Amino acid sequence: MFPPFYAQSALQVGAEAKVYALDGRLLQAVRAAMDDFIPPGSREERPCWGKPESYRSRVIREGDIFFILIHEDPDACGAQYVGVDTGARYAVSIDGRILRRSVGAEPDAIQVPEPVDAGIPGAERMLEPESHLQVDGGTL
Q1: Is residue 60 within 8 Å of 3, Cβ to Cβ?
Q2: For the segment 85-110, what is each residue's pLDDT rounded down to a tens digit?
Q3: Coil vs helix vs strand at 36
């Protein structure tokens, strides 16, 4: 599960006339996520939404894992590009390995379907092992 990226306000890095100290492991994690989201290549051939500078990132560090949210910068491409579910969430280890990704509107948790009973009343009991049967080593 990813942490809530908007539970608190974020420090805006990049304001003019300010000094920032950024950890190299943080930069490595953000780069790993961004390179996965938009693979490196020629920028001239890409539309606006295909360039890293058209996105913003939010980062939360929990222990040895960086959780990174990449989402559109609504001011970057103007009104000609309207994105729907175009962001991504990443869990990146402190050594730069991507541990998990969720792109677009993918759910946080793995969806496990309910068991199917094929409409037979009492089918759930049919799946339980019969304790009164003797096992003879594989003879049918």
Answers
A1: yes
A2: 578 999 999 999 999 998 876 665 55
A3: helix
